[in-house]
Amino acid sequence: MLNNTLNKILFKNNVIKKTAILAVVTSLFLVGCGNDQNFKREVDGNEDYLKSPALKPLIIPEGTKIPAESNEFFVNTTEVRGDLGKKLDIRPPTLPISTIQEAFAIYNNGSVTFNVPLSSNVWEQIPNSLNKRNILIASHDSNTIQTGKSFMVRADEEQAVEASYSIKRQLLGDTETITISITSLTRGTENLISQPVEVQRYIVGLFNDIMNDVAPDSMRIVPAKAQDKNDEEKNKPESKKTATSVSDEDQK
């Protein structure tokens, strides 16, 4: 009896120790995944295709008839130079998203242009949005905001960039056109200002952050009618059909 009890105690202790070890290992693994952002920008899979030999020219025996050439099956053999392997960035380009009604935004040639009604008071809210992100304002007047160099942190980047921005507005009747452009962009000692994808990512990223801050309450709160409808759907019986069939069975 005593031996059985001791064996059970030892068994439980071993299980607890193994469980604790697995928990620690799992937590370390999750922490590692949380710090490693490469999965957001790399292709994962077999890379044997990189070792594939070049295509050989087709040899056609004499006297053999071949079909006429078709552009639908044309193979472009022009050499394309670019990033390869695990350093290939597969992230899609960032697009501007407006959160103000009767407003529109476009990205073109290194800048975001945003047209919005004056009644939305977007321009007046931009300084607070910049301060919220620790972006220093070097100069500010009624139509221009120049920022100092500030660090911009993204979850999908291992190293922050240092960027400065120019924000200008032009009054057009009862609307204002706001243009956000970038004046400097570096990551460590690397100058990124000549890389269109990086420029777009950090200009549009800032614009979308500002849009998130200036979004009206109607964009943040579920409308009452929609909320009531959702509550009705949750509390609704299984279906009218089921209720009808049940009542018919009761009548029988």
UniProtKB/TrEMBL annotation:
Q: Which stretches of sequence are listed as region Disordered?
A: 221-252
Q: Which Gene3D superfamilies match?
A: 3.30.530.50
Output the Pfam families linked to this UniProt entry.
Answer: Lipoprotein_18
Point to the regions of Basic and acidic residues compositional bias. Answer: 226-241
> Do you know which InterPro entries this protein is assigned to?
NlpB/DapX (IPR010653)
Protein name, entry field:
Outer membrane protein assembly factor BamC
